[in-house]
Specification:
- GO terms for molecular function: hydrolase activity.
- Keywords: Hydrolase.
- Its cofactor is Mg(2+).
- Belongs to the Nudix hydrolase family.
- It is built from four helices and seven strands; from the N terminus they run αββββαβββαα.
- It is α+β, with helices and mostly antiparallel strands and 137 residues long.
- β1 and β2 form a beta hairpin.
- It starts with a helix and ends with a helix.
Length: 137
């Protein structure tokens, strides 16, 4: 996939939701290569900002209400070729569950030391730095 193709397709917003020393991850029903476990995420729709999309996708996928804190960074994902925006979010209410069972198989709160078992490749640097700080508290 080329850079041009990534720019033509809608971007993806990923919600980095941290609570009680763990980050929320979801397992897709259909893996994209090595991407089986990932953060709640989906396409940015219409005039949405990445922050709005991350909040909406978290609600749709896992039934939780979150607030976007800040954009951690953007990149073209090396495995999918899609433009990704990573958004740090805080939980407002709810406990995660598989709200979208067409897309998701399960959800998990993942501790810092467990991340390599769920994500068998390096995380985006900005996300790794954020999680290193947020999950060491």
């Amino acid at each position: 996939m080329t850079e041009q193709t990534a720019q033509e397709r809608p971007g993806i917003a990923a919600a980095i939701v941290v609570q009680d020393g763990a980050v929320l991850m979801v397992r897709r029903r259909v893996a994209e290569g090595q991407l089986s476990w990932q953060f709640p995420a989906g396409e940015i729709e219409g005039t949405e900002t990445p922050e709005q999309a991350a909040v909406r996708e978290t609600s749709e996928e896992v039934g939780m209400e979150v607030t976007a804190l800040k954009v951690l960074g953007e990149r073209v994902h090396p495995k999918t070729g899609r433009k990704m925006t990573y958004v740090a979010c805080v939980v407002e209410s709810g406990a995660p569950y598989v709200a979208d069972d067409d897309e998701l198989a399960e959800v998990a709160w993942v501790r810092h030391a467990q991340i390599p078992a769920y994500v068998p490749y390096d995380l985006f640097d900005a996300v790794q730095v954020y999680l290193d700080a947020a999950l060491s508290r």
